[in-house]
Design goal:
This protein is α+β, with helices and mostly antiparallel strands and about 270 residues long. The protein has two domains: about 100 residues, no CATH class; about 130 residues, Alpha-Beta Complex (Nucleoside Triphosphate Pyrophosphohydrolase), CATH 3.90.79.10. It is about 25% helix and about 30% strand. The two termini are about 35 Å apart. Bound molecules: zinc ion. The site of zinc ion has 8 residues, from loops.
Length: about 270
Amino acid sequence: MHFSDGRLALSKAADQLNFLNAAEIAALIESEGFKSGERYFLGLDQINSEPYFAWNSPHPNSENDHAPAGYATLREIGGALDELQMEIALHAVALSNWHNTHPHCARCGATTSISLGGAIRTCDKDKSEHYPRTDCAVIVLVRDSQDRILLGRQAIWPEGRFSCFAGFLEPGETFEQCVQREVFEEAGLAIREINYLGSQPWPFPASIMISFDAITDFPESARPDGEEIVAIKWLSRDELKAEISAGTLLLPPDISVSRKMIDRWLTA
Ligand SMILES: [Zn+2]
């Protein structure tokens, strides 16, 4: 599959990934002027052992901010992809984002080259090996004893958007400590019963979201920090549905972890 300037190549119907063979890639380089780029091995199909590769190749016109037709970002196309294509897309986007931003060695500044089929880069000078990095971020759905949930709003979000609390793991921190710290920093709340729910790759550009739920015994003490979070809301299921119907509350997009957590609670 083709990844170009942050976008995935789509099928003609624009609802699936477009898979190319070597001859088609050669023709694209020839006719439309894509650069030869880099190729990364993504893995084997579990059923028929067919190999999948990502071809990471920018278009020569990419500088003018005009995306070629037939390409879309993972955010734009993610909701339409089936499970396998989503896995392939997540892997390809995460790997390509890392390769695109690590052309030089962090130790000596020399150029690096792709090795092990795209699994690592190797410094051309000191031969040190550099591994793709994934940034851990926790996300938490906070509930109270009446089974209401607490959502927060960031100033940069679209009007009416509220979501779960989230933040990056700091060095030396456990996931649970990070969940406690983020909720305390952003909403001033003490929480207990932090339970792991699951995880989802989030290559925008290089994260994995590790999701939890938690309980607070002090819902009335919740306060937005006024910096990262500018407003908060406690919502029962009925209140949440009513606000969505009235158009006063906008939930995060379908492919986001937070949306899945909220939907899961809503239908529990
Ligand atoms: Zn080096």
